[in-house]
Design goal:
Length: 384
């Protein structure tokens, strides 16, 4: 069983992560984590903190001579602005910010300072989720799985989705500060961020994550908590500010006829192919060999420069919310966090399907499974 935990606060010394259950023999270096951490920090509409931070994850356990040992991986990301905070006398915060964990958190834990809640609820924690996801991504890469993302919408502005199977499109998305596939979409999405900023407001949006090269048979139809769609939804929904998760065309299928909602099959050259991928690669809670597609809605950033109505818990007076410098839009960053969540769930499901305590053993198990599929369906591999 693959599992991870994170610990740490937004303005504490740093973030800790522990990944347990990885096989031995996986090449893993800090550079593998650095790339995704840097991608999380980019994006048009981010606030001041991103300029200070430049995250770097240290691997402090579970790797010897560049290879995983089979033991837990210990990760550490220092908060670069910790020296600016550690000696400060911080006043109690008693005005909960709408859209944040502040009020529910102080009620739940019977606290009188919302700072204690916001320090842990902050999306700063997603830096560690991205580092953990990068570990999962390394495992998946070993078995031919790659994970990509793009932004489909920011506020009211929609992007024209690019074909993420095309490396040239992926290159353009990676070069775009709003993770858009073409210049016209980029302009529209940027304009939506600018418009929100001009009215002292914030925006959310929609992003898409696609996993290519996923073998059929991950997850299971036999029990509710083994269904891969449910597992993906849980992992993605747990990302700060995510409010809706769809598998494939999930947001649209409610309004379609059945003949326009499913994916017909055809056998060509002994290979089963799908005519469409509306199901996003998952049927009955299992991967069907098509790319796994998820679409995710992120709500607008909760902290707005324009005041929102709230109360002071110390006086019970109605007061306006106070502004703490914040992002205007974090949808592109959230897409990178979404990639990490998808990588995590697929890595877990892959290990569950194939078993094995070392990468070599898993390769042998994969070959054996693919050979069994070939015997039954007279084909080497379902087309991806
Ligand atoms: C990558 C990322 C960056 C975020 N940055 C901010 C921010 O700068 N300011 C803010 O108020 N909320 C930010 N959020 C959103 C809050 O963390 C989120 O609204 C809060 O945790 C409550 O979310 P929930 O209602 O989904 O639990 C960010 C979220 C993500 C995923």
């Amino acid at each position: 069983m693959l599992r991870f935990l994170t610990a740490g606060e937004s303005h504490g010394p740093g973030l800790t992560g522990i990944v347990d259950g990885l096989p031995a023999g996986l090449a893993l270096a800090e550079e593998d984590l650095a790339r995704d951490l840097a991608r999380r920090q980019l994006g048009y509409g981010r606030g001041g903190r991103m300029k200070i931070e430049q995250d770097r994850a240290e691997i402090r356990g579970g790797v010897a001579k560049g290879l995983t040992t089979g033991g837990p991986i210990a990760l550490w990301i220092e908060n670069r602005d910790w020296p600016n905070w550690k000696d400060r006398e911080l006043e109690r915060l008693t005005v909960p910010r709408p859209g944040h964990a502040d009020l529910a958190g102080v009620m739940k834990y019977l606290l009188d300072d919302t700072r204690i809640v916001l320090e842990r609820a902050s999306a700063r924690e997603t830096a560690m989720r991205v580092a953990v996801g990068a570990v999962a991504r390394r495992l998946l890469a070993e078995f031919g799985v790659s994970i990509r993302s793009q932004v489909l919408q920011i506020g009211p502005a929609r992007a024209v989705p690019g074909d993420l199977a095309d490396p040239a499109v992926v290159e353009r998305v990676e070069a775009s500060a709003v993770r858009a596939a073409d210049p016209a979409s980029e302009d529209r999405l940027r304009a939506a961020v600018d418009a929100a900023k001009a009215r002292q407001d914030t925006v959310g949006g929609v992003f898409e994550v696609i996993a290519f090269g996923v073998i059929p048979g991950l997850g299971s139809h036999v029990q509710w908590d083994r269904k891969l769609d449910g597992r993906l939804a849980q992992a993605l929904m747990s990302i700060q500010a995510v409010k809706a998760v769809a598998i494939g065309d999930g947001f649209e299928v409610g309004g379609r006829y059945g003949t326009e909602a499913h994916d017909g099959m055809t056998a060509r050259d002994g290979t089963i192919r799908r005519l469409t991928n509306r199901a996003g690669g998952i049927e009955g809670g299992m991967t069907n060999g098509e790319p796994v597609v998820v679409r995710v809605v992120k709500k607008p950033i909760s902290t707005t420069a324009a005041p929102q109505p709230t109360v002071d818990l110390a006086t019970l007076a109605d007061v306006p919310s106070q502004y703490i410098r914040s992002d205007v839009c974090a949808v592109p960053a959230a897409a990178v966090v979404g990639e990490a969540a998808v990588a995590w769930v697929l890595a877990d499901a892959l290990l569950e399907k194939l078993g094995g305590d070392s990468v070599r053993e898993i390769h042998a198990n994969l070959e054996s499974y693919l050979a069994q599929l070939a015997i039954r369906y007279q084909r080497p591999r379902i087309a991806t």
